[in-house]
Amino acid sequence: MDVELPWVEKYRPKTLSEVVGQKEIVERLKAFVAAKSMPHLLFAGPAGIGKTTSALSLARDLYGAGNYKDSFLELNASDERGIDVVRGKIKDFARTLSLSTSPFKIIFLDESDALTSDAQQALRRTMEMYSTATRFIFSANYSSKIIEPLQSRCAVFRFKPLSEEEVAQMLKHVAEKEGISLSDDAIKALIYVSEGDMRKSINALQGAAFLTKKITEETVYKVCSRARPKEIAEMLESALAGKFVEARDKLDKLMLNYGMSGEDVLLQVYREATTLGIPDDAKVKLVDKIGEYNFRMVEGANERIQLEALLAQIMLLGKK
Question: 229-319: which CATH number, 1.20.210.10, 1.20.272.10, 3.30.450.20, 1.10.220.30?
Fold first, then answer.
């Protein structure tokens, strides 16, 4: 019996021409394929915007869909990130010649910002010694965690977060293929909860599709355990108006109805704070307070007490 793939893998682009967004980067990668030559590469940018997909699509276009695995080694550096891996698996693969029509092989180090400093240092000489036979692609959410000597050996590609139109385009494509009815409000909700992360938005869509084939805004927020932006804004407005008990009741409903953690609530409060109809200096003070209470919660303080204390601070800010 065939096992149904997660939709993220099922609809992952197979070639560079299918990659959504990142138009300029895709054109540069296509030029490498046409020339059958490329430098070492560093893909940097937030999660879920096409870094891994671009690397896999580059390999398929370069070596052919059926043969790329012989010349392409993919390692997830969050699992295999020690110096032993560099000295063993990576070095053994790098030193062997390519058997494909392309003169070099590719080692793809996903999540390479998780590599230890020693492992990164050990890679420096390996990259130079075997550059005729092997090219490296590093993928990192935070390029600042890649040591400067490695960055200087790579052509850096900075991936941008996907636009709302691009995420909506992909969601509509998946919904059409799966026979799902997806309202415009549901698409907006998926974009809101995913924050430009295509992987998160498709996973949320699949989770909602298990409940119903007719997906609405309410379904999305329920599956993702997120409150509607309007509900968060109403809670903040009640606190600013001096209605502390009312704001506290709204907080109770959010945490009980959606099963949200304290940090989830705080992150949504932060996103809605700048949209409130209050003066800019008040927004600055509000964001400062949110940062202070986030630090307290991260340090281990009781999240419920801290959230109610934040509402109290917002109420005092509203009185001023």
Answer: 1.20.272.10
